[in-house]
Amino acid sequence: MKLITRMIPVVLACAAAQAFAGDTPPATNFASPPAKPAPVVLQDKSLTQEEVNRMLSQGYKPKKGRGDDVLYCRDEAAMGTHFTRTICLTAQQIKQRTADSREITEKLETNGGLKTNGH
After folding, report:
1. Nearest-angstrom CA–CA distance, 42 and 56
2. Domain residue spans in the chain?
3. 52, 44 Cβ separation under 8 angstroms
């Protein structure tokens, strides 16, 4: 009798486990993890690889613009604050800024850094 009394909880536990085992779906019905999106490849045909490397070294990161346009963005400090803002430009705008900077530098170097009024 003592053996039967000890075996009843074990039998009930096995019966309960069998009853609940049928409620869970098989492992093959679990949803698979979401697929990773394909990487976006940006091609800027207006630049050489050397120009792209130079812009990347200056902190610019390519981003998709409208249509087939590629924009180059970087964070720049706002004047007089500790805040930064993201500036996005086309390759042609960056080339123009670079050319303008070179021109100003050359003018300052040829004039000795001083503005001359003919005196």
Report:
1. 14
2. 46-111
3. yes
CB 71 within 8 A of CB 90: yes
Higher pLDDT, 63 or 36: 63
What token pair was written down for 36? 């990773």
pTM across the whole model: 0.54
**How is residue 11 written in tokens?**
């039998």
Given pLDDT bands bounded at 50, 70 and 90, which one contains residue 22?
low
And the tokens for 116? 């001359």
State residue 62 phi and psi, 5-degree precision: -70, 140
Q: What is the 3-state secondary structure (H, E, C) of 50-73?
A: HHHHHHHHCCCEEEECCCCCEEEE
pLDDT digits (tens, 9 = 90+) for 87-103: 999 989 998 998 999 99
Residue 23: left (phi > 0), alpha (psi -120 to 50), or beta? Answer: alpha
pLDDT band at 45 (very low <50, low <70, confident <90, very high): confident
Answer for the pair 70, 43: CB distance below 8 angstroms, yes or no: yes
